[in-house]
Amino acid sequence: MCGLAGFSGTFTEQSLREAGSLIEHRGPDDSGIYLNDFGIGLAFRRLSIIDLSALGAQPMSSADGTVVIVFNGEIYNFRELRSELEGRGATFRGHSDTEVLLQLYLAEGEAMLSRLNGIFALALWDGRSQSMLVARDALGVKPLYYAATNHGVAFASEIKALVRLVPELRELDPVALHRYLTFLWCPGEGTPLRAVRKLLPGEALRIRGGAIERRWSWYQLPYFRPASPDVGEQEAVSGTVSHLRRAVHRQLVADVPVGAFLSGGLDSSAVVAFAREQAPDIRCFTIKNVGEQDHGFTDDLPYGRRVAKHLGVPLEVVTVDASAMVDDLAQMIWQLDEPLADPAPLNVLYISQLARRHGIKVLLSGAGGDDLFSGYRRHVALHYERYWRWLPHSVRAGMDRMTGRLDQRNAVLRRVGKLFGGAGIEGGARLTNYFRWIREPELQALYSPEFRGASSAEAVDQPMLSFLEGLPAATGDLDRMLALEQRFFLADHNLTYTDKMSMAAGVEARVPFLDLQLVDFAARIPEGLKQRGRVGKWVLKKAMEPFLPADVIYRPKTGFGAPLRRWMRGALRPLLADMLSTESLTRRGIFDAAAVHRLIDRNERGEIDAAYTLLSVMSIEIWCRKFIAA
Q: What are the start-end ranges of the H helices in 531-610?
């Protein structure tokens, strides 16, 4: 729902209006601007979902005009909060969750943040204290970027809008770019621009007089809190059902039709199974990719149709071929604001566009299931470490070297190499290594000498290592990994592209698996009930047995992406040749052109699996052309 931009300091009204126009896709229904004499400006684009009347318009002011809010997102417990506030004497003009936020702030100030169960990015000007509160939701479902300059602080839902407010801040951040290339996304607060930061999940800023007065975290993942008693097997299964059902039902609140993504995977199927209890005719949407898939991937569509038939819900399918996806890659990077090297965001875009054509403004997503309950291959690999972790370091290091030379064209051998990659690494770095897509020496060899030195100013995985240091010592390895998933992989990758690409079509994506009560409950489930041998998400699978067919629940795991490895040898070659030409790479100054071309050759010969690394290099060049200069 919606998009926002704003500032505190010396900025122009024209730049604020231009920033707002650049996020029109996030809110095509309405727009608004607020400016005052204290150097405060707020721009808003509205996607009308709750209280479609003018009483839900933003920026929204308190009755006396002293407090003004812009808010992107949904507060799922707003009705309970409204009832409580009315009991304390508050009066309301309309029926929006925005007005509930405004009244809750008037009653409780910034302490209100811990009362919210929802997804949001907000900015709230308080004329009484001459300060601004800027905050982001607990798990980072809604994006928010900011920049502190010598003439004030600016912020926006998307970087493309923010740089219109601060056009002078175009210096690249080598450390952040090194992280994008290592992980395909950037963990932590960094972005491609040195001066532009992400407001982290569960963080808030207090801005006064054009400067950040305070920055703090108002939310911590449950793994950091005093330990609660683990739940037993029966309670884990029944509690997963009750918490997920409640989350889905809660997130159906809207004054417009709500639909759902339905890939046929366990997570999206579980969401639809509970959604149809309240909305029997909920419209579901999926995608059919024409052409061959990479080896090891299964076709989702038959499973999607199987689930739709089982649940009795309509399923709409958008068909896309490889050429269309390749043509849309550059636009994908523009919409994402960040050089995320993953074609999966395009699937979100195409499905969202289809939903919007059918009059759907809200889609329920299955994102987050793997991150709460353990569903990635790296979780299986972590489980099997017990069988070889006891070996001497020299032997483990040898396993790493040996498996790194396996033929990367074969999916099984590629995964064996991934399994033992970094086998000799100890401590937290062993866990963060699972997120890497290329070994450090191979990546460093791609850089120009100048960039190589600048990119090494801080350890590439330092944000994740610092995060792990704060976890209680008794936290098990799988829960430590799941904490990393929830804090970094979700917020900095999956949720980023889910929000940006759905909002590009004027559709809001909601994520019931990230309901805060469900997140808290999942953290209490013992590791052995999440990952049981090779079976990931064991407790979720058991929970859904009464609701879904067994062949859907226990189907092979597949990615939500595209046959990138095939593309690199075919459909993507012309774009690759343009973006990674010697002239282009030399002009940019980040990469050694000869080294990149050697990597392309090695990838084609199968000596290394570098398809995603090459996409990352190409995505950075595309990003630079879009956001800096050709």
A: 538-544, 550-553, 564-568, 573-579, 582-588, 593-605
